[in-house]
Write a structure and sequence with these properties.
Blueprint: E1 2-8, E2 11-12, E3 21-28, E4 31-39, H1 45-54, E5 59-61, H2 67-75, E6 79-81, H3 88-96, H4 114-117, H5 122-125
Length: 133
């Protein structure tokens, strides 16, 4: 599994659409086996999506993301977990352990709304069906 985290100064970038870099983690059995930094400085949304698709990304963890970017990534079968903030390494470990839904990782204004937007993430993000956040 390849997980990309939009990055700015060792933290999750506040807005994916303006991030210039992603950290790509290759993981097996919930352990990181490789870590690489990649530039994604093209602001043209389709090119950003193709870059992530060509890197083989399965999941993107990011802060805010525009609807066009989210739809484009969904079109490329990339799961998007948005509204996340914090140190990249810490966020990744919390994601791998299933604890990414903790309020301390929510970007202000998101308050766990990611659970309601994409039901396929519920189990991975720790959301429970029918539970209001």
């Amino acid at each position: 599994m390849k997980i990309a985290v939009s990055e700015y100064k060792d933290n999750v970038a506040t807005a994916f659409d303006f991030a210039n870099e992603v950290i790509v983690f290759t993981c097996e059995k919930r352990k990181v086996i490789n870590r690489q930094s990649h530039k994604i400085d093209d602001q043209f949304i389709p090119l950003r999506g193709m870059k992530l698709k060509n890197l083989g990304i399965d999941t993107l963890i990011c802060g805010a993301i525009s609807n066009p970017s989210a739809f484009m990534l969904h079109h490329h079968s990339i799961e998007v977990i948005s509204g996340i903030t914090g140190n990249v390494e810490t966020v990744l470990q919390e994601f791998l352990s299933g604890n990414i839904n903790s309020p301390q990782y929510w970007l202000p204004g998101f308050a766990g709304k990611g659970c309601a937007r994409m039901q396929s993430r519920r189990q991975r993000r720790g959301c429970k069906k029918g539970k209001k956040n």
